[in-house]
Amino acid sequence: MSAQPVTFPRHWPAVGDSESGWSVNEGRLQLDGRPVDDWIAGRRTPLYLYSRHVIEAQVRRVRDILPAGCELHYALKANPHPPLVQYLRGLVDGADVASAGEMQLALAAGFAAQHIGFAGPGKQASEIDQARQAGVTVTAESMRQIEAVASAGARSVALRINAGQQMRASGMRMAGGASAFGIDSEQVGQAVALAQGLGLQVSGLHLYAGSQNLEAGQIAENIRQAADTACQVAPALGEGSLHWVNVGGGLGVPYFPGEKALELEPIAGALQQAAQQVAALGARLRIELGRYLVAEAGVYLTRIIDEKWSRGRHYLILDGGLHHHQAACGNFGQVIKRPFPIALSRSSGRPAARTPRRENHDLVGPLCTPMDSFARDLELEDAQPGDLMAIFRSGAYGASASPQAFLGHEPAGEWLV
Ligand SMILES: Cc1ncc(COP(=O)(O)O)c(C=O)c1O
Questions:
Q1: What confidence tier does 345 reach under pLDDT thresholds 50, 70, 90?
Q2: pLDDT, tens digit, for every residue of 38-52?
Q3: 212 Cα–ligand 1 center, Å
């Protein structure tokens, strides 16, 4: 029998997963034609496997819609695995970091200081000092941060602006209304005056509305609004002061049944227009993406280590769980708990059942909390201890966004192939 595309119980016939190199052959998952058990031989599960060529394909998809001169930044918070950051350094133009730790990671991966943006609502004086020493311009998110940047002896600062409008379709909204992120647009004049009074050049403007947005029209509108805001603020900055305008991103990926891959065309149009506006200010346009570049490149592999019946429900107990992948357990900002795309891979050591039964299972991890659950009532054929479960769309906000120390289990392995 030849290899088939991977399908997911209760999900769509996955768009893009054949492109990802994953397929299934006689109940066993394979990557680029090689059984997954062979790939991971000698490594322990649970393990995150990240694919270079899926990352590269996503970067290409984005590059195809970028206007000339628009910089593509990678937001390390989505996945800071050092080999992956290093790999992305060769594909993108810069990095966005949210702490001194991420900044050091970006510098160690070879990103140049002038191509690193450092945003985040709370920065310690020591972090601002490290940024100044490295030559990284800090993006201030409050009046006090502007003062702290000046006190550290920096010459320039960027300002993150909390625009007036909310991005409705975002999974996680981070601007509009009251927000811990950025300086309200109506206070930006005051912030600019403060920075200038302290001898700081305002060299960047940063607007970021929210993450995991699957509505291209909304993202396009947000980009238009960000560019308009930059045009309103720029005249106060003085000739030659502004070097870049970062209009954010928030491009989402489909995780759940019924969700569709994002259309990039409307975003392309908005970027084109924004690039012209920003060029007229003498600055470069920048977008920053995390999830969109890496989510589809990652698969979390976890083994079934036990099974049992309890009052009519069948449980499959895995060696991995919430402590490695809280997003897939529905505990990373999701309102409704729904399963990520999950596929079974029969262990290489056992033959297929003669008469395979399709049964419903609850997939749970090893932690003593009911939150540690990947799916309820998931229909699988011939699932047994020793088999692998593969959780797709796991390349972003996985290992580093999970409470790995909780209950003292081993951290997940991570491997870029
Ligand atoms: C300031 C900033 N930039 C970039 C990102 C990355 O967003 P995404 O992974 O949705 O592209 C985030 C996510 O929260 C963010 O807060």
A1: very high
A2: 999 999 999 999 999
A3: 9
| Residue closest by Cα to atom 15 of ligand 1 | 208
User: Cα torsion at 295, 297, 302, 307 (round to 10°)?
Assistant: 70
The pLDDT value recorded for residue 169 is 54
Atom of ligand 1 nearest to the CA of 288: 4
Residues 167/250, Cβ–Cβ less than 8 Å: yes
pLDDT tens-digit series, residues 228-245? 999 999 999 999 999 999
Within the chain, what is the greatest distance between any pair of CA atoms?
A: 79
**CB 208 less than 6 A from any atom of ligand 1:** yes
Q: Rounded to an integer, what distance in angstroms lies between the CA atom of residue 233 and that of residue 90?
A: 33
The position carrying tokens 């209009």 is 247
Contacts of 365 (CB under 8 A, 6+ apart): 302, 317, 318, 320, 321, 322, 323, 329, 372, 373, 374
pLDDT band at 11 (very low <50, low <70, confident <90, very high): low
What are the extents of the domains in the chain?
22-51+296-416, 53-294
d(CA 265, CA 286): 18
Cβ of 250 less than 6 Å from ligand 1? yes
Question: Residue range 71-85: average pLDDT?
Answer: 98
Structure confidence at residue 241 (pLDDT): 95
210's tokens:
């929210």
Helix, strand, coil percentages (3-state) for the chain, rounded to 5, are 30, 25, 45
> According to the model, what pLDDT value does residue 167 have?
47
- Which CATH superfamily is 22-51+296-416 part of? Lyase, Ornithine Decarboxylase; Chain A, domain 1 (2.40.37.10)
Close Cβ partners of 402 (under 8 Å, ≥ 6 residues apart): 322, 323, 324, 325, 326, 327
Alpha-carbon distance 274 to 285, whole Å?
A: 7
- Topology classification of domain 53-294: TIM Barrel (3.20.20)
- CB of residue 254 inside a 6 A radius of ligand 1: no
**Ligand 1 atom nearest residue 292's Cα:** 11
What's the confidence (pLDDT) of residue 15?
46
Model pTM greater than 0.90? Answer: yes
- Residues 341/261, Cβ–Cβ less than 8 Å: no
Specify the DSSP class assigned to residue 348.
T
